[in-house]
Design a protein that fits this description.
350 residues; 13 strands; 5-stranded parallel sheet; 25% strand; 8-stranded mixed sheet; alpha/beta
Length: 350
């Protein structure tokens, strides 16, 4: 929607009657809107998909594709279903009105359309669209693209589903000591730079950053959207993260600033992914033994003296060869049984 409130909104007028189109278009333009016209439903959908508009005024009785079919198409298209539709029709009968509303229409105005009522209905519909657009923007800003897409496709509901994927935990070594050695402003700047680099590596390989806690982060590969090569993607990400940290430390050293080291743990397998919390405040996350193991492996990097550790399931799931060092069965904190652990050597090609 254009600047200046509802004025300047772009409307698509769909009516097979040329006289109706011309007269209604003139009234809409006098209200301050720009109008694109279509003579039937098929043409309307083509124009809508090619160049989205702010609102659709839709007739019902049309050749080739009637208004009911257009509403069905719009409702089934993720890219279009939030576009408000006001039906303008000479069809009588409550059943037709109900059917239009059930198919997603915002309103139903009988012909001949009352100009004052039309102005009010358009204004209300555009205001609803503005609020929906703001809501979608907030979701995009505070959630990843994948989570936003999952919300748009499936809607929000607390609960989860079983998925197979890889989980990564990463942490800055000695961060508390580092934070105490410099002003808080420099620490915040360091963290912002660190997260910028890490986010770029993670999202670049199909992962999503699920959780940030101080200097640590959790990333998921394979949820909410499936990722066939999630093991390779997670390991490639870890290697790129290490490479970025190395380049960043060169700049830090040149500027006389402290360098950082990180540890990364990766585990793969089944987990439960979904939205946890309350209907008022929730987050998308994964839980399960796989998640716990990834966290333990990240912690174990300190004891093992290795930067990247993966479990046996991740190694078995790699489609490409990697330069690995077998550390043997290892007992990690929180696990009653030992697990096969492998260190990924820096500079590995995968």
């Amino acid at each position: 929607m254009r600047e200046g409130g509802h004025g300047g909104a772009r409307l698509l007028l769909v009516d097979d009657n040329k006289v109706n189109r011309l007269l209604l278009a003139r009234n809409l333009e006098l209200m301050g809107h720009s109008v694109v016209a279509a003579e039937n439903g098929r043409v309307a959908l083509e124009k809508l998909r090619r160049d989205p508009c702010d609102l659709v005024l839709l007739d019902i009785e049309m050749p080739e594709m009637d208004g009911f079919q257009v509403l069905e198409q719009i409702r089934g298209d993720l890219a279009l279903r939030d576009v408000p539709v006001i039906v303008t029709s000479s069809l009588e009968g409550l059943d037709n009105v109900v059917r239009c509303i059930e198919l997603g229409a915002e309103d139903y105005l009988p012909k001949p359309v009352n100009a004052v009522l039309l102005r009010a209905r358009i204004g209300a519909s555009l205001e609803k669209k503005r609020l929906r657009d703001q809501q979608k923007e907030l979701v995009r800003r505070f959630a990843t693209t994948e989570v936003a897409q999952d919300l748009q496709q499936s809607g929000f509901a607390l609960g989860g589903k079983r998925v197979y994927g890889s989980v990564m935990f990463s942490d800055i070594r000695g961060f508390t000591t580092l934070a105490e050695s410099q002003p808080p402003e420099e620490t915040i700047e360091l963290l912002n730079t660190y997260y910028t680099l890490m986010f770029n590596a993670i999202t670049g390989h199909g992962g999503i950053v699920n959780q940030i806690a101080g200097d640590g982060l959790m990333a998921i590969f394979g949820a909410p959207l499936p990722l066939p090569d999630h093991c390779d993607a997670a390991v490639r990400t870890a290697l790129e993260m290490m490479e970025m940290i190395g380049l960043f430390n060169v700049e830090q050293e040149a500027a006389g600033k402290p360098q950082i080291r990180i540890g990364i743990g990766i585990a793969s397998g089944e987990m439960v992914a979904g939205y946890t919390g309350t209907n008022d405040r929730a987050t998308y996350t994964c839980i399960g033994d796989t998640v716990n193991l990834a966290s333990r492996l990240e912690t174990h990097t300190k004891e093992a003296g290795r930067a990247i550790l993966i479990d046996g399931a991740t190694r078995a799931g790699l489609r490409n060869a990697a330069d690995l060092e077998a550390l043997g069965p290892v007992t990690v904190r929180g696990k009653s049984q030992s697990v096969d652990v492998f260190a990924v050597k820096s500079g590995s090609e995968i």
